[in-house]
Amino acid sequence: MAFSIILTEKGGPTQRLDFDAEEITVGRVDENDICLPKGNISKKHTRIVVKDGKIIVLDLKSTNGTYVNGKKLAGPQLIQPSDNVYIGDFILNVEPPDLGAAAHVDAGEDRAAGRAATGEDVPAYTGEEATHRAGRPAPPANEDAKPTPAPGQLRISRVAVTTPSPRPPISQPAPRTPARGGNLAAADRGRTLSLVHDRLIEAMDLRRLDLDALGSGELREKTEATLRQIVGKMDAAGVLDALLDRDELVSDVLNEALGLGPLEIYLADDTVSEIMVNAPSEVYVERAGRLERAQKGFSSPRAVLGAIERIVAPLGRHVDESSPFVDARLPDGSRVNAIIPPLALKGPALTIRKFKRDLFTAGDLVERGTMTGGMAGFLETCVKARRNVVVSGGTGSGKTTLLNVLSGYIPEGERIVTIEDAAELQLAQEHWVQLESRPPNIEGKGAVTIRDLVRNALRMRPDRIVVGECRGGEALDMLQAMNTGHDGSLTTLHSNSPRDALARLETLVLMSGMQLPARAIREQVASAVNLVVQQQRYADGTRRISAISEVCGIEGEAIAVQDLFLFTQEGFDAEGRVVGRFAPTGVVPAFYEELQRRGVAVDMDAFQDG
Question: Is pTM beyond 0.70 here?
Fold first, then answer.
């Protein structure tokens, strides 16, 4: 015997394979020494050589690559027995002959040490139960035991071993464990979904289909027909659990193969505002400001990655080890963020903020309790009077929604230029130019930043510039635009209060690389920004304007700010909803006097409480 392979399928059983050769290959087809019939494994994927006590692993130009301890192989690599070799959904450890006996004595400790990084609970195995000698069949445990395939034709089947949640054998009926509520347990359902998906990939190589054809009726019909044949054969063979809905299984695999998998139903659900994939089986949605776990998840990390690729590929963007996170949007305008391993430790993570087809108006926000009618009228006056407004708040507090409402107040006759990372704003005005930044290409070139677009917008004869969010050096260009004839500009930024927002603007200006004195930056902020609107998300999931504050200039070394409207939380009601009240502070903004002198009608009652 030259060496042994300890093979573990993720979430499945472990096998020990002994070889009398110095070199073997691993791949999807039968001509390999180890055949792993899975869709994410190439026909010839990896070569393993054990000679003179050394172990060498080489990737055979596979589609998805071979990884050692989480790092992708770029060429032949010398490894140790404790190193984990990742091939698709499988983990391999290579044991030279001198380690074989020790492995039989205490294999559990060796595997626990070798897989500490994966966090997986790998089952113990023993001699005859999990040992397979290529070309030398082990004595069968009973009369029904199948002989070992000949060398060169070795196939890795899912042999049942001692494991908490083994993957059911593909050639035998899955164990029928009663589930609560009469439904198939989530883990068993996920394994079945993954198995059907793998067989679909074998039958129709979906990875090589033209992305432009995805979603076409012809492709969907062909894929569905193939799926029904696969499910029918599995059903006839007794592989599928009796509790499993066959039509639902076909629909789920079809969505996962050609669409966004389980996310399709939540994208179509108007009550869902946000979708979050923490791990393949951990999907959460937000309804009415509250998080809840979704009933369905993805079958595997590969399925999540496939959904991400289908989102970003049509936009000319990519996500891989060199660019492991990406911002994008769906065709309906929903904003998407994706991040993949090795940065995401539990598997590819995906966050989708759904775009509202029916845009909120100021009346909608008043009805939902985001602000009062008096506050809405005041903000409308500010926009029409060309005040520069910053909308401040935390993530998910409703800044973009409010920015869209404020942008809707801009008069029809003005030229508007909007600048965003991922286009979300939807304006009704005709004279509107919409710009979107661009990330670097696969070579790290071609990036167009928000700052580049702000500078370019100044050459486009804008009456108003609306920046979706200031998060870097573009803050300096935005302030300069506000101070040089582009009054009435709007933007958002992340901060916890109006005063924090102004301090954050100072910090963002410093990120521009300009060596400016703190006093000069502060004066620039104080003269450019007229109003800060603070948006906040409360414990019950509701979103409200917590403060509207006017910037009054510089007093000493600080920017003077006075609050005009405040929301005061007074507690919670019996159903856990936030109870509070909006109230003006009684302060009237200085520019109202100027408006009155110009004959503009203004509502002074909005500043009186009660």
Answer: no
